[in-house]
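Chapter review: from sequence to fold.
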Amino acid sequence: MQDQSTLQQSATDPWALLAFCGYLLSVIIVGVYASRFASRGLAEFFLGGRKLKSFVVALSAVASGRSAWLLVGVTGMAYARGVSTLWSVVGYTVAELILFLTVAVRLRQYSGEKGSITLPDYFETRFNDSSHLLRGVSALIILIFMVIYVAAQLDGGGKTFSASFGITHFQGVLFTAFIVWLYTLLGGFLAVALTDVLQAIFMLVGLLVVPVIAILNFGGFSAVSQAVRLQDATMLDPFALTVGALIGFLGIGLGSTGNPHIIVRYMSIHDPTKLRISAVWGTVWNVLMATGALCIGLVGRAYFPEQSSLPNGDTENLFPYLAQLHLHPFFFGLVIAAVVAAIMSTADSQLLVAASSVVRDLYQQLLLKGKEISQERLVLLSRFMITVLIIAAIALREIASDLVFWLVLFAWGGLGASFGPALILSLYWKGTTRWGVLAGLLVGTTVTIVWNQTPALKAQLYELIPAFFLSLFLIIIISKLTRSEQKPEERDSTWPEDTKV
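The token string follows.
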């Protein structure tokens, strides 16, 4: 059995460093390439000018949605729980397939016609909200959860660099933050989307190659299954979990409906009719990556029956450690790049969404409403806000103690419960009112936080589930109560029934 010092020696092997540095260089080059386009204005900086192709949108949505949660969190969870972990990926895979085929098409059509750049933009134009309440509240919710989300990604980066290169956890956090900050600052959304494609490919290859080689070296899948079964037969039972855990895992998919860093991808495609092609690419990528993550957890359990055998005794270090044992240092460097890619592909998207909430929604549309501001100044301010937000995420990470898996789920759940019901109903039920949406946003956020911080409740069910359905219920009730009070100018008579999708 090789210990953590051996892992670090392999990671600092010249071949491993060459592969990893090559990946980092390619990411920075993309950022430089996209910088000229991104500087033209907010629509280009935050939405790529709505010019993205279906393949780019699909892989960008998948890569930004999975993050360190898949490569670091799910692999570790599969090591601890076994095959039943698959339910945590089934929910979002099905949900995102449906979203690509339905919500994505309608949202892209409407946001393009109205010129909406952000999700708060959409809500304000959808309900002709002259009070700007929807914009302000939704922007603040995005800020709260996105900073938490970015902090979780930086924590994942810190773990990866610490386990692989022998530096401290905090040094790893700083290095991850610097790279994400650099290319996001330079190229905006276009750089993020293009690097997401590169990162999605790295993630997929790493998640498929490592378990295949490890399984073959162990003697085949039957040998792995037998070794795992001898430890704990329930590890191979997909239903070896409580009903509450099953509902919670499946409910993870509800988060896809309201996470802005995924939703904004739908708004960026050039041709909304091509979203059906994106649905195919996205689903294939989700299924393959999830399969690889589950296999890594199982074969890891066969190799390391005792958790103490892993670096720092942490299951979230399983993927890079397993790769170190079975790959040439050059390819091990690429696997480390894949883990970092998963982290960066989410952190960069979240930084952009959070920055857009400050610059577009709070600064341009609220504080300086009606005043002429140059696009160059807005882009410059956006870059400044990216810097401020990543510093805030680093600070938050230092006081957060949760594992990556659960910290990501908290932010994922908060955004999904707050925005998911509001977005779906606003697109498909014309009876939705701004007061209903406002109530849903506030309830989704509040219930998520209270439920998460109440141990007795949290132990029973993942907070996203009750928060999502309470938000949905309240939007319907409040909308029915306030429908008669809604002013004619607050009703968009062209949407949704009269819009061609």
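Two observations follow directly from the output. The CA atoms of residues 68 and 343 lie 5 Å apart. The mean pLDDT is 85.
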